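Worked example 3 (structure in, sequence out).
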């Protein structure tokens, strides 16, 4: 039996909710059947998080009903989870999960179960909350922007766990690559209603464009009907003499319908990028750069050359030092070794991921016109603060509100407004996609694609990187760096296993360097059996990452589970076994290499 034929485990029926005078939802139906993997998408401010909270039972609607099958366990992970307890294991087990399940889930997300809950970064907080949710093994899982603050490796871990999850899941996310790999149904929240596409996310945008075109045509027909009815009403002698109340009411209703449709129309963000004067052909050049913070090595012997017009993506795990490397390339902090040469006539605009340049106590007006007054210089021309704020979808009523009252998406739009106000021929975007909806991401992407200057992009959004980057610099978090043409997908293809210690065919692995550096004459050596095993292991360290990559590619098919659940489970088991074999092979290889080195030093 298909999921569509089964009764829902949780559902909303004819739900209505108003925020003051503003109607958020009007007759929303949203059913979630067993094992459905769905996403809820829509513009920032449409009410996605609110709708998720209604599903979770945290907010009561003004009208309609919420249904939850009796005995159903539902787990909700908010955008800003609160991590409490003495240790992460205590926190992850606090919802009823078995202790061993809680610890296993934390380790799956790269967290130490014995670690305390204080002093966690944004990414660590998110990983802990997700680990707790999966450890509880609910029948329904609700995730609000789960990929925010996660690095690419953690996002891929989440994708694997979500695909293996046995319950139903509803995800609010703007991460296209993540949604392409995980969901088979799309709920689209727009104009106070929810529309449903029972297909993978890859087909969502074409479908949404078709729906909007049909609604635009309906609006055009309505306008024509109002025009005809108005002409008939005022030209009709009968209408003038008897004041035909029925016709007047129909005309009023049509006008109200049109006014509502116009009120529901979303206004696009106004994004323009101006490069100003051209920089020199060379933007930045690094030669043999090394940098460490204590025991943490950011880069060792890194070299690169950035030319005018390049679009460079910098990727790697959280804490790998991506921002540090960018600041070295900009000459903001010194390298420990090597040299950095900056080009001439550089005008830099920097969008900072920490948003530390925003002061919570200042108003939105002050943040835009930081020199005071009621105007600012935008791309070399004077523009009123209110008009510029409107370009970035801020209401006039928000201008005197403190920055602290802004949502995450609004703060990011404010930073974009500030960063894009002045012409710059070098644009640095450090995590620009957090909290931005897909429409804004599309507009930002289009603006950057048409930008005549040079771009340095730090991001965990794989789709955004793939669409924009001409080359990618990857940091593995242990001091190794590689650079390759193209975006994230190209980097993964050229350097499989780079982030997990697997073999990278276009880069020298540490074990290869160790082997090359070994003395030519050895007084002692491995046994024939060990030497043969070492050769076998080196072959496995090449083939296993490729095998794993092929399995993961098959699992990116969002409809695989629905078509072949047994095949899906079999593939998941094979993938788990391959990863375990790779880890075991790496451990065995290291042990044999250490034995080999000790034997060579024994003489």
């Amino acid at each position: 039996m298909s999921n569509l034929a089964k009764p829902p485990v949780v559902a909303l029926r004819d739900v209505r909710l108003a925020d003051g005078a503003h109607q958020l939802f009007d007759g929303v139906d949203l059913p979630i059947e067993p094992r459905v993997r769905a996403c809820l998408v829509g513009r920032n401010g449409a009410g996605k998080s609110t709708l998720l909270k209604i599903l979770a039972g945290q907010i009561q609607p003004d009208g309609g009903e919420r249904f939850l099958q009796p005995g159903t366990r539902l787990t909700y992970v908010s955008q800003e989870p609160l991590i409490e307890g003495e240790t992460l294991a205590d926190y992850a087990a606090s919802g009823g999960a078995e202790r061993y399940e809680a610890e296993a889930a934390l380790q799956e997300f790269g967290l130490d179960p014995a670690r305390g809950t204080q002093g966690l970064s944004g990414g660590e907080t998110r990983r802990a909350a997700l680990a707790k949710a999966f450890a509880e093994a609910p029948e329904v899982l609700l995730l609000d922007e789960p990929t925010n603050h996660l690095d690419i490796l953690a996002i891929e871990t989440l994708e694997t766990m979500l695909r293996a999850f046995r319950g139903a899941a509803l995800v609010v996310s703007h991460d296209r690559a993540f949604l392409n790999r995980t969901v088979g149904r799309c709920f689209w929240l727009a104009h106070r209603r929810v529309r449903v596409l029972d297909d993978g996310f890859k087909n969502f945008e074409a479908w949404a464009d078709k729906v909007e075109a049909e609604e635009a045509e309906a609006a055009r027909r309505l306008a024509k009907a109002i025009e005809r009815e108005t002409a008939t009403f005022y030209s009709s002698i009968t209408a003038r003499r008897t004041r035909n109340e029925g016709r007047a009411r129909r005309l009023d209703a049509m006008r109200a319908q049109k006014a509502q449709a116009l009120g529901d129309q979303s206004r696009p963000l106004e994004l323009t990028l101006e490069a100003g004067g051209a920089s020199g052909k060379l933007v930045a050049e690094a030669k043999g750069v090394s940098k460490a913070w204590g025991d943490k090595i950011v880069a060792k012997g890194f070299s690169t050359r950035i030319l005018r017009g390049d679009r460079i993506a910098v990727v790697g795990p959280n804490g790998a030092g991506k921002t540090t490397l960018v600041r070295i390339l900009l000459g903001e902090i010194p390298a420990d070794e090597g040299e950095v040469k900056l080009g001439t006539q550089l005008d830099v605009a920097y969008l900072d991921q920490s948003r530390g340049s925003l002061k919570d106590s200042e108003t939105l007006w002050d943040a835009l016109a930081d020199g005071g007054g009621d105007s600012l210089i935008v791309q070399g021309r004077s523009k009123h603060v209110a008009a510029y704020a409107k370009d970035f979808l801020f209401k006039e009523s928000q201008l005197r509100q403190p920055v602290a009252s802004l949502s995450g998406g609004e703060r990011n739009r404010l930073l974009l407004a500030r960063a894009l106000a002045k012409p710059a021929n070098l644009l640095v975007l450090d995590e620009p996609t957090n909290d931005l909806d897909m429409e804004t991401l599309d507009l930002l992407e289009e603006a950057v694609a048409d930008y005549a200057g040079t771009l340095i992009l730090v991001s965990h959004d794989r789709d955004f990187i793939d669409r924009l980057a001409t080359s990618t610099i990857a940091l593995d978090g242990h001091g190794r760096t590689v650079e390759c043409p193209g975006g994230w997908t190209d980097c993964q293809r050229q350097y499989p296993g780079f982030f997990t210690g697997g073999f990278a065919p276009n880069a020298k692995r540490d074990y290869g360097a160790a082997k090359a550096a070994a003395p030519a004459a050895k007084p002692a050596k491995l046994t024939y059996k060990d030497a043969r095993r070492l050769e076998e292991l080196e072959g496995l360290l090449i083939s296993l990452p490729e095998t794993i990559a092929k399995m993961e590619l098959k699992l990116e098919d969002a409809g695989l589970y629905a078509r072949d659940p047994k095949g899906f489970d079999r593939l998941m088991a094979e993938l788990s076994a391959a990863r375990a074999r790779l880890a075991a092979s790496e451990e065995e290889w290291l042990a044999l290499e250490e034995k080999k080195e000790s034997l060579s030093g024994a003489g």
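Notes: The chain is about 40% helix and 20% strand. The longest helix spans residues 565-602.
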